[in-house]
Amino acid sequence: MAAVDFGASSIRVCRVDLGTRPPALEVVHRHAHAPVADGRGRLRWDWDRLVTEAERGLDAALAAGPLASIGVDTWGVDYGLLDARGDLVAPPFSYRDDRTAGYAAVVEAAGGAAALYAATGVQLLPINTLFQVAAHDRDELARARYLLMLPELVVHHLTGAVVGEPTSAGTSGLVDISTGRWSDDLAAVAGIDPTRLPLLKPAGTRVGSWRGVPVHLVGGHDTASAVVAMGAAPGPGAAFVSAGTWLLVGREQPGPDLSEGARAADFGNEIGALGGVRFLTNLAGAWLIEGCRAAWGEPPVDDLMAAAAGWAGDPPLLDVADGRFLHPSDMLAEVTAALGLRVDAAPPLVVAAIVASQAAGTAAVLDRLGGVTDVAVFGGGGRSALYREALAARAGVPVAQGPVEAAALGNALVQGIALGRYADLADARAHLAPAAVAAGER
């Protein structure tokens, strides 16, 4: 399988062999990226470059041998607009842009936060697609024939298909959680004709081909794909942390929790790749350290983590759920101010404080979830023993390290189910390798 996995700071194309147990994954192409400012200072994605790099990766995957299938996942909430010819109206905006600063007015137009949560089940964040579309340039929106979430925008580039997929659509705040379909009422609030929203088809659907290789929908939202690969047989008390640019902390459950308690605790209900719901919340992840690294001259992350591990004493803490870290003009200044430190504080102290804060924030979410017996941490941030050990100590439960390339692996597992390699999700997960565990005690 070829798994195209777009992260918000790098894209990967992986070749995954499902004929081995556990599956063998090789990253055949990687490309670092970041949003760029347009002529008006708005942050957009360099989309032409990103899809070019995706195809370069697919070329490399195909050069290594035949492919049975291709699947695509990306981060959520962002989208692209296609005109009547199927061309991009303009490069997609980045959720890091601050154009949604007036989102509160849109919340009120939708009937208030409680009504919006009851309709969509999603965590109320200013980056939600609903608020982005409401703030979108009206001239660009008027030229659009379709709005595609980013995973399906890549699929369109590869195949020409115009289609939506539930997990990526589910991050938008434009889907009715009770029906699983786009909401005409919320589309009206955003100011977009609902006929511009594509038909939703489930993960596993074949939607076209690229150079003769079938392209299947997978869990288009990268977190949905990553959770597919969270572990061999997660039990009823299992929680997860998808650790990347964001820390997404939650659990799988059969259906949504739309209670006032869930909303007040800041949990969202995200549609699972193969059914069910990911009940979770978003915390600031690698974005914090990456933003500080830029001010420090881009020292290697591994070196920063090693130095932070040697820092003695208890560092100060900040609130990793605070919206102030979404798109600050100076991340280091924002972080050090929140920590009560000077902006020229020693980098090992700052990193130690960030990691300790992430562990404390994660443990607090696990406590709000209740009934957690063990935690799987996967994604790039799962490599940090400092974070895993701090989390185990604070949460008092075992913390297992899952796959680093979890989104790509879960992407490939769904392709395997689509092709009949696995019977279902449980069968696919049974082929995963056991995870290493850091013990914790209550």
Question: What is the secondary structure topology, with strand pairs?
Answer:
Blueprint: E1 2-6, E2 10-17, E3 24-32, E4 36-37, E5 43-44, H1 47-63, E6 70-73, E7 79-82, H2 103-109, H3 113-120, H4 129-134, H5 138-142, E8 146-149, H6 150-159, H7 166-169, E9 175-176, E10 181-182, H8 184-190, E11 206-210, E12 213-216, H9 222-228, E13 238-243, E14 246-253, H10 260-264, E15 268-271, E16 277-284, H11 286-296, H12 301-309, H13 331-339, H14 347-369, E17 374-378, H15 385-395, E18 399-401, H16 406-418, H17 425-429, E19 436-438
Parallel strand pairs: 1-6, 13-17, 17-18
Antiparallel strand pairs: 1-2, 2-3, 4-5, 7-8, 9-10, 11-12, 13-14, 14-16, 15-16, 18-19
Helix pairs in contact: 9-16, 11-13, 12-14, 14-15
Report on the architecture of this protein.
α12 (301-309) packs across α14. The protein is an alpha+beta fold and 442 residues long. The protein is globular. The model has no long low-confidence stretch (mean pLDDT 95). The strands form 6 sheets. Strands 15-16-14-13-17-18-19 form a 7-stranded mixed beta sheet, with helices on both faces. It has a 4-stranded mixed beta sheet with strand order 3-2-1-6, sandwiched between helices. It has helices at 47-63, 103-109, 113-120, 129-134, 138-142, 150-159, 166-169, 184-190, 222-228, 260-264, 286-296, 301-309, 331-339, 347-369, 385-395, 406-418, 425-429, and strands spanning 2-6, 10-17, 24-32, 36-37, 43-44, 70-73, 79-82, 146-149, 175-176, 181-182, 206-210, 213-216, 238-243, 246-253, 268-271, 277-284, 374-378, 399-401, 436-438. It is built from 17 helices and 19 strands. It has 2 domains: 2-222, 2-Layer Sandwich (Nucleotidyltransferase, domain 5), CATH 3.30.420; 230-402, ATPase, nucleotide binding domain (Nucleotidyltransferase, domain 5), CATH 3.30.420.40.
